[in-house]
Description:
The chain is an alpha+beta fold.
Amino acid sequence: MFTANAFDHLAWHIVRHVHDPDSSVPPRTYTDGLAQRPGRAYELAVTGLGYWLADSVLTAAAEQLTDDCLDPAEGMELDRVLNGFPVRLRLAQGAISLPGIAAGTPIWQVLTPDKWGRFPGDHHYAQSAGPQPLL
């Protein structure tokens, strides 16, 4: 199992990546530390992305939410995260267990689109773009 912790240029969170290459479970990557900031009682997560892309997506999403003074909302699209392609936010359903994250902390999943602009859960989403299991 591969686990990485990266300290990026934002001092208020780290990005954790958990992946077992011997498993069929896609990797999970998530922030740890956003929920401790005033007014930011949530963490962000992605599934199915490689570490460097996941780190970039999560950091850019956190930056845009902070810079634009936005609170995550179901279906919200962010436009400065993925080189001009929008990403979509979705509140993870049920009890999600992520190492280091307090139980009950809201987890907002950042969904990336396929090449036609469709997101996981949308009709005709192309799984060939890489599986992004919904949390």
